[in-house]
Amino acid sequence: AKELCRKGIPLKYMKIFFKKLLNLENFKENYSIKYEMAMKSIDPNYLGDYVPYCCGKDKKKLKEILPIHYLNEEGITHLKIIMWLISDLVPEIEYCPLLIKITSILLIFLEKEEVYEAMRTLIEMNYKPSEISKLRWHFRFTINENNKLYDSIRVFLENESANINNLFTFFKERGLEPNLLIKDLCDGLFLNYLNFYGILRFICIFIYEGSKSLYRFTYGLLNYLFEEKLEEMKNNKNNLIFQIRNIILNITDYKKIISDTFNLKVNRFNNGYSNNDSGKEVEDLEKPYESVSSYNNDSDNDKESNINSKNKNKKENDYLYEFYLPSIE
Questions:
Q1: How far apart are CA 262 and CA 255, in angstroms?
Q2: 101, 118, 106: which is closest to 28 by C-alpha?
Q3: Could you tell me the pTM of the whole model?
Q4: Tens digits of residue pLDDT in 168-196
């Protein structure tokens, strides 16, 4: 599955791929019943144009949270419903902008009941030590945790890539803080940057590999900007963020970017893993809802869990949670 999703899934097989990867092939009646039961908690006729607080920093209209999507009117309705169901299911989610983006993409290929079950599965993976140990979690649930993730991606790239370090220097000279760009890339799940084909390449990798793919794709795209488009950006005095969006949006061949992306081996910083500021081990966390289908992962030993960190002694990393900071082998 790993090599398949990295090479790219043909469009006609995407539904089969998602159903197999997220363990949706069996027991359809069970998760259809779960969806119907969950629907009793809301009235779709009163949802309006708004989505829950957890989708953005405030309760906003859908078009403000998700300006780019590929859904028709019926898909939008199901998207809003699923977002409210997830908000009721896990009320402690403060801020998780990726939830609505992933849901919008899965709705292109799966039935609404399947998408609801898929999102339950992905959320539960955040609480599974076996998945956390491989950096296969997908979401951060507070503003503070998301900001630490962006910090960690920036530090990772600065320490491990001279090209991107030079690119960040150029950004700063033009008044663009690297963290703002990383936040814009990752908060939007690259929807504001990649074309539809690029989004499909990324989403398969993200669902299979989890948070590691955010580090990898950010590296691949920024390395492309440095190697192929730096001079063009230097000669263009327009808004830098819009320049970068237009450049990436017009990429038609992702082979080199994908190749560069997976030259990186992103690993855990060490075996410790605490949740938020509580210091509690993940095993001790209460499940916010009943157990759902377990993740259907590979049987390999995942060699990427071996640690060879070059960043341990860097002072800037001290304030970052250990589980945010990977390294390259």
A1: 11
A2: 118
A3: 0.77
A4: 999 999 999 999 999 999 999 999 999 99
